[in-house]
Each structure stands twice: as C-alpha cells, then as structure tokens.
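Continuing the batch. This is chain 6 of the set; chains 1 through 5 are on the previous pages. Same settings as before, nothing changed between runs. Recording input and output for traceability.
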Amino acid sequence: MKPLKNIAFIAVLLIGIFSFSKSEKPKTTLNIDDINVLEILSKQDLSCRPNADFLFYVESSLVKKSRGFNTVNARVYMVDRSTGQYNLLASENVAVPFHKDMIALDYEITTRECEMTSLENGDKIVGNASSGNYCFSELMKNEIVYNSYINSTNKLLHLNRSI
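Output for chain 6:
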C-alpha cells in the first residue's frame, strides 16, 4: 500500500507543477516605425481583395452612458497576419448618439494636432488623453477601418446601424 501512496503523491505533484506552468510565449507588439500605415490602407481601398499581410480592426468599450448618447472608447489595431504581432494605431473617445444629429456635448474636448470631427454616421469624436501614433479621424476616412468601427460599436451597444 505504501508504494501506491508514493506513486499517487508523485503523480499529483507532477500534474500540479505542469498544469500551472506557463508554456506560451507572450505576443510581442508590431514595430510600426518603418511601416507606412496610411499607404497600406490606401492600397487596400483600391483593391477588391484585402491585403494578405496586415489586418486592421477596431475594438470598442463603453466609457459612459449619458442622456441622449453613449461614450465609447474605440481603439484601432493593426495586426501582422504572418506573425500575429499587433500594435495600437489610434484610440479616441467617441460620442454615439441614440438618434442622428442629437448630441449636445458636455465634454471638454482635448486639444491635439488631429482634427476633431464628426463621422459620417453622426458620431462625434470627443478626444482622449492617450492615443496611438495616428489620428483616429484620419484612419476613419478609410472604408476598412470605418466598417470595422461600425461593426464593433453595433456589437457593443446592441445597435443595428448600417455600414
């Protein structure tokens, strides 16, 4: 009976050690200093198939619910499809109205080099203190990023806005 206890103890010990050890490598961020993101996006707009090298997507999270609109933090990422590395391109707070042209903003808009504007669907960019290397409004001019933004905010706020 004693050898059975020893084998059981060693088995439980080994399972415990290997189940809590981390064997995955953390994903590293993509170096975008030598990549012209706006040129890549302009090439993707002109072609019928997306570029196989990079993927652009938008993540959004709810910041604040207000009367008449919700404030959403939208982050634009660029992913290298071959390596899985990613990098934040831009991050801004956007006021999403319940109805188009309905916002009376009660925000102090932060001043930056980028122009603060409203998007073509009526959402207003209200600014963010921490942003990426590119202007959010400049990236939103591209159809790929704009469609990803609409899909992301629709899923977050349970809306049915068309692209």
